[in-house]
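Preliminary data (for renewal application), iron/sulfur cluster complex.
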Amino acid sequence: MNTILEMAELKKQGRLKALIVTGCLAQRYKQEILDEIPEVDGILGTAGIDEIAEVIDRALEGQHVSRFEPLDRLPRVEAKRFVTTGGHYAFLKIAEGCDKRCTYCIIPSLRGSYRSFPMEELVAEAGNLAEQGVKELILVAQETTLYGVDLYGRKSLPELLRRLAAVDGIQWIRIQYCYPEEITDELIETIATEEKVCHYLDIPIQHASDRILKRMARKTNQEELKAMIGKLRARIPDIALRTTLISGFPGETEEDHEILCQFVDEMEFDRLGVFAYSAEEDTPAASFEYQVPQQLKEKRRDELMEIQQEVAFDKAERKVGSVVEVMIEGKVADENVFVGRTYMDAPDVDGLIFVYADAELMTGDFCRVRVTGARTMI
Ligand code: SF4
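Predicted structure:
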């Protein structure tokens, strides 16, 4: 809301021609935005994002446009896409919506039920992105592991991975947002054997206390989570596992928190993020009893992050002396210091590698780098 208000101010000053709001916030608070911010010219829901060009044209003609397509609609995938992530990597959205009903989450009501994009369209889009210089594809959806169930009657992520791996120019394929109990043996095998698929998996587990997982309506428990993580590491020993957790979920006791702390310590995730629970209006959890005070949620979040920092630092230290493949993201200084990522690091959320090189490296170049040290950066 603050960003929209800042933009509205620019519009009042004549420094913007039109202001268009789209995404989950627009879907959820359409009326409030229209009522409270008259500078907004166009407002677009989550299922009609492919109509944005038309909405912009009309807004520039001075019309007020409001577009809210039914949530079961799948936006058309344009064959040609403008890459806004620097050119060397791009997100590939493989499905929209979600049929799970985690009690803290508003996404299913804002984005509708699970709909996969047809495989042919995704492969064509990947080809197009590769022609524009994209080398890394990051597969995203609210939930990637169920890809294809609605269209093809079976989980088809492994097949999609194989077809994307056949696209010339693509060198890394990274999978994000896997729901743990939907990970199949076929998927693990495909990650293990398809060369271009990064040995990296993002599995947001949210918690590790069975009592809290149940209150969250997650369909898994700690024993199954451990078994899945064990299986992944046994088949793909160098796999980098990322997860996200929620601290201070309603009803979380000191004992639940302890269970989670122990789990984090024991499982040694390679990458981990923690969010203090935030009550989302109109979700079941928002009206659960025993809401945890804000300060305590944040304290528990910080405790979890402290445990993880030690784990992550130990893991990084163990890399010192080894040679890793790095994709260059850019230059950080006048001297030849570059910044890049390994297969273990997704952009924005994971770690970085600083590369000292005599050569002039370009964004998107791959190079082999000897690790000489590790440090934490806040
Ligand atoms: S947390 Fe993820 S899996 Fe659960 S309802 Fe939300 S989008 Fe779906």
